[in-house]
Design goal:
25% helix; alpha/beta; Alpha-Beta Plaits; globular; Rossmann fold; seven-stranded mixed sheet; five-stranded antiparallel sheet
């Protein structure tokens, strides 16, 4: 899930994406140059692991702040004894250090015990074991080292570069609901993250797709993933919801927080004129056209009703909701 927001994360904010299993992955995994087989990792490529132990109630904010400081992602463990461990891997040259992370979290109001350790190359094998294909209907999100399966719409995402690898319930359920849409028109993917929904939409016959995100790294990740998947018809740009003009398409995909979804609904309601169409090779499609179908995700189950209410002024009503592990996605239609 991409937290597509313009301001600094607050306690109400949630991180970009999380997984429900033993580890929860979020943000961009730190990239390193792989060392040669059997050789030692050069000192410049040494990997550092920072571990921050925080109260379970502060985990969401801590993850967002860790990403804000380091620019890379983390793996969040399940709560144990009221505490959560958050691990960050990054090259030593980019690592801010334990003291800097502790100070940064404290400034955000998070009390954390932070430690730092060198990592050997075994972490690469652990990541490969963790990142297995995710199947949602006819869509299969897989890392590049896993072979394709005939008859599936593969979305290949490199966990080393991704802002989400499809493992979080909000991504899986959004993919499921997307496949139940009766139309195959132009799409706005608001908060594109690593590009999973945008690429899946093109694989399923939707398009063109306008993919936006407030994070330049997410914009770059989506563009890179589209090229790697050899998918055209995805137009990616940086935009801040609530501040920048947004295209409006008949189909809306938004895997973001409730707060930002509410702002998005208000902005779409006021969208009109030449900026309202999704750009394509033939120009803008249906200027001023309103959203006819939407898949909203990034929601806790208790937030779904509020999200549906936010989009009611657009003439959209709930068609289906899909809960999983305390999270939920909802499909709306005109």
């Amino acid at each position: 899930m991409c937290a597509c927001r313009a301001s600094r994360p607050t306690r109400a904010a949630r991180p970009c994406v999380r997984s429900p299993s033993t580890w929860r992955s979020t943000g961009t995994m730190a990239m390193t140059r792989a060392s040669s087989a059997g050789s030692a990792t050069p000192s410049a490529d040494r990997i550092i692991r920072l571990t921050a132990v925080v109260a379970a109630g502060d985990a969401d904010l801590a993850v967002a702040e860790c990403h804000a400081l380091t620019g890379v992602g983390c793996m969040q463990g399940d709560a144990q004894g009221g505490s959560v461990a958050i691990d960050i891997w990054m090259p030593v040259a980019q690592c801010p250090g334990a003291d800097a992370l502790r100070t940064h979290l404290a400034a955000a109001g998070v009390d954390a015990t932070v430690s730092q350790a060198d990592q050997d190359d075994s972490w690469r094998d652990a990541l490969r074991d963790f990142h297995q294909p995710v199947v949602a209907g006819r869509v299969r999100v897989r890392p590049p080292w896993v072979a394709p399966v005939a008859g599936m719409h593969d979305v290949v995402i490199d966990p080393g570069m991704a802002f989400g690898t499809g493992q979080h319930p909000t991504t899986r359920t959004a993919l499921e609901l997307l496949q139940r849409e009766p139309v195959r028109g132009a799409v706005l993917d608001a908060g594109c993250g690593s590009g999973i929904l945008a690429i899946a939409a093109r694989r399923l016959g939707f398009g063109p797709v306008a993919a936006i995100d407030f994070d330049p790294d997410s914009v770059a990740a989506t563009a890179r993933a589209a090229r790697a998947n050899m998918v055209d018809g995805i137009h990616v740009r940086r935009a801040v919801i609530g501040e920048d003009p947004l295209p409006v398409a008949p189909v809306l995909l938004a895997n973001i927080t409730l707060e930002v979804l509410t702002v998005l609904a208000q902005q779409i309601a006021g969208a009109q004129g030449p900026d309202a169409g999704v750009e394509s090779g033939a120009g803008r499609s249906s200027p001023g056209r309103t959203v006819e179908h939407a898949v909203l995700s990034g929601l806790r189950q208790h937030e779904v009703d509020a999200a549906v209410a936010a989009f009611a002024p657009l003439g959209l009503t709930e068609a289906e909701r899909m809960p999983e592990d305390g999270w939920a996605s909802v499909r709306l239609r005109a």
